[in-house]
Amino acid sequence: MKACRQSGASLVVTLVMLVIMSLGAIGLVRSIDTSLMVASNLAFRESAVLASDAGTEAAINWLSPLITTTDLAANQEAEGYYANVSDGMDISGMAGASAKVAIDWDDTKCKGSTAPVCQQPAAALTTTNAGNSVRYIIHRLCRTAGSPNGATNNCLMYQVGLAASLKKSQISYGAASIFSSTASVYYRITVRVRGPRNTTVFTQTLIHF
User: Fold this and answer.
1) How many domains does the chain have?
2) Which residues are bridge partners to 137 per DSSP?
3) pLDDT single digits (tens) 15-60
4) How far is CA 19 from the centre of its chain?
5) Residue 7: Cβ within 10 Å count
6) Per the domain annotation, does 121 fall within a domain?
7) Does the residue 125 lie in any domain?
8) What is the mean pLDDT of residues 133-143?
């Protein structure tokens, strides 16, 4: 009788340990699954960030031949170009009540947005092998359209500094700061990449010519 009691107690302890080990195994599997999911999401995001370079390059290639013309003084909405930038812009496309400008990334005419202005980005580039869809929109950093040198306009400009007087390989502290009389306007390129698993990445680049 005594031996049977000891055997029954061992069975109970074994079952308890088995349950504990099973719970530990389940927790380990879930932890591994979560880690794999996080690593996978990071990989998709990194792929989308790299794909955004193609959008920036395409925007620069479109701008380059037009810099010496007057075409950039006016909006070219079909090309995703705007000659001025407005306050209250929400680049996500899901502008809230306080936003004044939304961007129609998905060609829905800013459906779901309460912003009074809906701007159109350029057409999507060819989808990458990784499944990323890339679109861009360009804003000239001016308050209004028209000439950047207009009396009523205000643009963010880049000016090149002229060579100051040098003394022993050092810039003379007594030399006045002199800038070139010509200046170039800054342009902001906003790129959105939509990839697998609803991965969405936005990048912005400031350029001047």
Assistant:
1) 1
2) 190
3) 777 777 777 777 666 666 565 565 556 677 888 889 999 999 999 9
4) 48
5) 9
6) no
7) no
8) 96
